């Protein structure tokens, strides 16, 4: 059974693919694992009864769980391999050996060979991968060899040696697998054109190659060679599902530090990914509590210095989301696209997940503290005299002036209080007049609260601009509530917040929690109002259809609906069922009407 700290960490893990790391009480790495779903996989360690003593001992020692979120399960597999090879955790046995995942190498030589390898040699050769399946590598190489004749010998095919006639063509030439560059029977230019086409294939751009394979499969099937056609189909399936590159391993990126930043009103989160020889070997997120109105640039600059010192990073190059000043010795790069941008996006993704988990943990440990923080923030952002513990939001709903209704939704302590929601039929306004409708519902709402001596809200939000806000203010004036309840209007287009008698709107930061709660209120009021409006409109349409039948009046319609609940049931009822409710004469008229309809 997990201790309270570990249980809390598990509760806030994401349902995403990634790699998890278990640490003991001294901060020593015990185990690294991969998961398609981090939360489910890590939870299983603390709910299963393991027969293996080694696993039981591991679970007892776990004090801290860290994780790195990645895009795919394949990336998780590769990242797990990197971390285990780098840190050699005590409880990982399977991946501690020198075996690595395979790559496809295009050798740096005059007539380049293309072959699979598990060793990367820094001699200028190109490496593509790594691949989690050797079958995928062989399929790609078979495809390449089937399309392009390449040499397989390891001779030094320098111009001088070929001119001197040092080599003779081998069996591969006579079999048609090689065109004989060793005897100058194949031009260097043509060979390199083929190598460029092969680069496209291993990068995943192999539409033309797939087209040829599919044509080959169809031809074999037409010739009734079904076994050979099936083998080609298997290759097509593998290639179509082939992932050309991994975010977590890239041989083109050498020793680099990657930093990203996510901020809100109170905290900043800076994620650090450390890459060594193109592979991620560390992920760490730093939480910084804001003291003043520091900019993201200032905070990122400070965090980079602190994190690099903490982990003793010697990298001379860093990737960041925007320019920062770190001195002349460090090369700062702001990626805009490609592999470098993908690794920066991965860092930002991990910062976002870290922030979400911190919020979830705070809610679980001390929900009141979380509410207090949000309420204090809203009071500050909206320039209120007290915390808006009770907020009410109004929205009008009508389509082409028909069935005008309004909705009032209520939030208490930043959360919806659905039992307090209210809907209004517009009674005193004729036609589509949003301003007059708003004036009516605000007046009716607070007149009733005052009459019933119910608590009033600290904040009223009007969905609309200055016009609707002015209408709502007229009602507050009539009731003597002006100045006793704070009231603002929110205009949809630019999310402008309007205050009474202030021509200049307030704009909140798009990341602001205050704005998010106001938007949630506005959206909820809109949803609630539209639902009520549609319900009313459909009922009216239903009533109108029944009332158009000669001899069927309003009272009859009410009796029918009370008994049958819907028009569909009325239409499908037989003569006897209808007669029991409305009598034989009216029942005949209904039956005749619905028979004519059908």
From TrEMBL:
User: One matching Pfam family, short form?
Assistant: HHH_5
Q: Per the annotation, which location comes first and is thus the protein's main one?
A: cytoplasm
Q: Where in the cell is it found?
A: Cytoplasm
- Record key words, sorted: Cytoplasm, DNA damage, DNA excision, DNA repair, Excision nuclease, SOS response
Which residue range or ranges hold the GIY-YIG domain?
Answer: 15-93
What NCBIfam families does the record point to?
uvrC (TIGR00194)
Role, per record: The UvrABC repair system catalyzes the recognition and processing of DNA lesions. UvrC both incises the 5' and 3' sides of the lesion. The N-terminal half is responsible for the 3' incision and the C-terminal half is responsible for the 5' incision.
Name the UniProt record assigns to this protein: UvrABC system protein C
Q: Say which species the protein is native to.
A: Aequorivita iocasae
């Amino acid at each position: 059974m997990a201790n309270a700290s570990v249980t809390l960490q598990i509760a806030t893990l994401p349902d995403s693919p990634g790699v998890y790391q278990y640490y003991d009480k001294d901060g020593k790495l015990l185990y690294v694992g991969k998961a398609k779903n981090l939360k489910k996989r890590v939870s299983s360690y603390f709910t299963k009864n393991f027969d293996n003593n080694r696993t039981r001992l591991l679970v007892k020692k776990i004090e801290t769980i860290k994780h790195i979120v990645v895009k795919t399960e394949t990336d998780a597999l590769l990242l797990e391999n990197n971390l285990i090879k780098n840190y050699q955790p005590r409880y990982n046995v399977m991946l501690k050996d020198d075996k690595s995942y395979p790559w496809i190498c295009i050798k740096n030589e005059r007539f380049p060979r293309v072959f699979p390898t598990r060793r990367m040699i820094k001699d200028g050769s190109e490496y593509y991968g790594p691949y989690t399946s050797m079958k995928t590598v062989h399929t790609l190489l078979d495809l390449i060899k089937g399309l392009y004749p390449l040499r397989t010998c390891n001779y030094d095919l320098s111009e001088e040696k070929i001119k001197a006639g040092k080599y003779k063509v081998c069996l591969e030439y006579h079999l048609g697998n090689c065109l004989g560059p060793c005897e100058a029977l194949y031009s260097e230019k043509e060979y390199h054109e083929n190598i460029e086409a092969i680069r496209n294939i291993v990068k995943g751009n192999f539409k033309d190659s797939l087209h040829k394979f599919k044509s080959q499969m169809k031809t074999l099937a037409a010739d009734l060679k079904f076994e050979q056609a099936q083998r080609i189909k298997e290759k097509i399936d593998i290639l179509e599902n082939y992932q050309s590159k991994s975010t977590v391993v890239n041989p083109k990126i050498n020793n680099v530090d990657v930093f990203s930043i996510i901020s809100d009103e109170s905290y900043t989160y800076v994620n650090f990914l450390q890459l060594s020889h193109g592979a991620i070997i560390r992920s760490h997120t730093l939480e910084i509590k804001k003291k003043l109105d520091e900019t993201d640039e200032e905070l990122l600059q400070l965090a980079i210095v602190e994190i690099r010192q903490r982990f003793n990073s010697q990298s001379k190059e860093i990737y960041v989301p925007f320019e920062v000043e770190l001195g002349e010795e460090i090369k700062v790069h702001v990626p805009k696209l490609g592999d470098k941008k993908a690794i920066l996006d991965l860092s930002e993704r991990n910062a976002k997940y870290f922030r979400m988990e911190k919020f979830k943990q705070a809610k679980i440990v001390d929900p009141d503290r979380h509410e207090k923080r949000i309420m204090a923030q809203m009071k500050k952002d909206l320039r209120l005299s007290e915390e808006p513990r009770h907020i009410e939001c109004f929205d009008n709903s009508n389509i082409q002036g028909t069935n005008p209704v309004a909705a009032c939704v209520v939030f208490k302590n930043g959360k919806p209080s659905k039992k307090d929601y209210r809907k209004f039929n517009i009674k005193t306004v004729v036609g589509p007049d949003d301003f007059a409708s708003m004036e009516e519902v605000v007046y009716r709402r607070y007149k009733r609260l005052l009459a019933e001596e119910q608590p009033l809200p600290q904040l009223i939000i009007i969905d609309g601009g200055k016009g609707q806000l002015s209408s709502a203010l007229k009602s507050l004036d009539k009731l003597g509530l002006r100045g006793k309840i704070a009231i603002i209007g929110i205009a949809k287009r630019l999310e402008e917040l309007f205050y009474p008698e202030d021509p200049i709107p307030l704009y909140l930061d798009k990341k602001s929690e205050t704005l998010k709660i106001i938007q949630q209120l506005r959206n909820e009021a809109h949803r609630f109002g539209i639902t009520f409006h549609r319900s009313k409109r459909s009922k009216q349409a239903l009533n109108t259809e029944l009332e158009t039948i000669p001899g069927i009046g309003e009272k009859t319609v009410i009796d029918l609906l009370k008994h049958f609940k819907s028009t569909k049931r009325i239409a499908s009822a037989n003569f006897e069922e209808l007669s029991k409710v409305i009598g034989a004469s009216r029942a005949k008229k209904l039956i005749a009407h619905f028979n004519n309809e059908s």
